[in-house]
Amino acid sequence: MNTTTSEKYFPLTTDTVPAYIRGQPELRELFHEHDVIETAEVGDGNLNLVFKVWAKSDPSRTVVLKQALPYLRLVGDSWPLPTDRARIEADALEIQSRLVPQHVPKVYFYDADMYLTVMQNLNDHIIMRKGLIQGIKYPHFAEHIGLFLARTLGYTSDLVLDYKTKKEQVGRFINPELCKITEDLVFTEPYRYTERNRYHPEIEPQVLAFQADQALHVEVALMKEKFMTHAQALIHGDLHTGSIMVNQTETYAIDPEFAFYGPMGFDIGAVIGNLFLNYAAHEVRTPDPDQRSDFQQYLTNTVIQLWKVFEREFQMIWDQVDTINLPVGYQQDYMLRLLHDSAGMAACKMMRRVIGLAGVEDIRGIENVEDRSIAASLALNIARALIMERQDLRSIEALVEVAIGCRPAYPWT
Asked: Which pTM was predicted?
């Protein structure tokens, strides 16, 4: 791993950001010579420094500054990371912005010496996870994210790109260290004992059962193999509801630093899995049964709709620009395999968020011990059902039926 930094690199602080901003020619139209520049650190992620920057006299003139650190912030400098991930993120954003500019933040510039990107401040939006926890519905999200997935995955795949461009792009986005994080945290550690796992002791009986479940381990290993070997398309690599910003009319996918050429189902499954994590959380977060049923139905309808939008748009791309003259019937088989992959990847993303390092606020933020255990147990059972039954699925509706048929194992009987 190359964790060396440029001689010009230094981690920014709220004190040093204003001077840095003033020194950037690309921002002189946005920030004027005599502006008082204010800044606040706003990042709550695991890997980076993130600052909001604005002109005191006109807060609408604002940007976000994101800088890679040479270590995993969640753990500290005992877990080094390559700063080249900042270049990968900037390159991914550039490609995504050409394909779906309405769903990707505008990038003003990338500083290769500082491993830093200056981009649009989405200050009229909220991290989707936080909104879903509050029970907020987003009526356009499924249409938007389905389109984002179809275009970013379809147009970067062998179905569209010529052979030379595709292979060059695979090389451009080799991202071994961040892929290794996913391989460890999503596909390996939750299914065995490791000190890095983080789960509440109340669900330990279910966790131990999962860690002893050899049939489950086989299915997870198949998903891990696909993640490691199936360079289908340029995937975001970390497309959970904490990497999506929304309001009632707009949707933006952010933070693609885990991008690489991998299986399409990993991105699709990440979105689906996080919606089901929220579904499990509202089993206890929303005590009123009518309100709970209504919001959980919104979540399951969103899963169905986003897949249908993805399927429609993806097949439209395929039909318009197919470069490899595939036989009739192959498209149907391909889409079915994508559905199966998405179900399996969703399951792995769910299990790691309940058992492993870096859980989600949806469930871990539930203060009542019994309620939290019910939500976590339900999430694990949904995940197990999705991965174990995925090969039998023939439609997205069938996938949802599998999930809503699950109940929590807690309290133990």
From this structure: 0.95
